[in-house]
Amino acid sequence: MPIIAPSLLAADFLHLADECTMLNKSEAEWFHLDVMDGRFVPNISFGLPVIEQIRKTTTKVCDVHLMIVEPEKYIEAFKNAGADILSVHIEACPHLHRNIEQIKSLGMKAGVAVNPHTPICFLSDILHDIDVVNLMSVDPGFGGQKFIEFTLEKIRQLRRIIDERGLKVLIEIDGGVTLENAATIVEAGADVLIAGSTVFKSADPIGAIAQLKATT
Question: What is the reported pLDDT for 73?
């Protein structure tokens, strides 16, 4: 069964405490937290103060996805805010190995996120150093987009490389995950399903999470 990581980008921020309580009661294992700077992506979401407050509400894993330029300036601050996993974008990091080492030196798990157009082969030399690959299955920056079907082939490629090398890297799928396509995504080789609208726009969010969790 996959790890379920609801994306709080789709949550009701007027009732954020209630949304966190709901996730704590659910079968979701991770809180997925998207940080956008309006530069790397054409949108601004939330940052350190919000993550600090969310951290206080939960003992579950806080999976922080930085869609920002120059992430090295803020990595320690996100550790202090409560991140357990910190992912940076390969496209935003000309010195990616240095960024990964910085994340790991602070005791967090390290992830690399890749945009839909970025080839899997670009990950080849960093895979053995990281814990998670976040495959973007929509163009980053906005929630509620449709899943890009070619992502399934990228999942299969990445799964094959990870298994051939005997690595423990988790494949995380971010964008357009629904109750209808979750099984296909998991079958292709995904370990973690990030779901925003599918969870928070549902009439029964806890039930939607349970359905995703039961995916085989």
Answer: 97
The pLDDT confidence band at residue 72, using thresholds 50, 70 and 90, is very high
Give the active site residue among 34, 37, 131, 191.
34
CATH number of the CATH domain containing 77: 3.20.20.70
Looking at the structure of the chain, the number of domains it has is: 1
Q: What is the pLDDT of residues 172-206, one digit of tens each?
A: 999 999 999 999 999 999 999 999 999 999 999 99
18 classed as catalytic: no
- Residue 139: active-site member: no
Alpha-carbon Rg for the chain in angstroms: 16
State the Cα–Cα distance between residues 211 and 182, nearest whole angstrom: 9
Instruction: Give the domain extent around 151.
Output: 3-213
CA distances (Å), origin 115, targets 23, 89, 128, 139: 27, 8, 20, 7
Assign 145 a pLDDT band (cuts: 50, 70, 90).
Answer: confident
Contacts of 133 (CB under 8 A, 6+ apart): 111, 112, 113, 114, 123, 127, 158, 169, 170, 171, 172
Q: Long-range contacts for 25-28 (Cβ within 8 Å, ≥24 apart)?
A: 25/206, 26/205, 26/206, 26/209, 26/210, 27/206, 27/209, 27/210, 27/213, 28/4, 28/60, 28/199, 28/209, 28/213
Set 63, 131, 174, 191: catalytic member:
174
7 appears as a binding residue in the annotation: yes
User: What's phi and psi for 69, nearest 5 deg?
Assistant: -85, 155
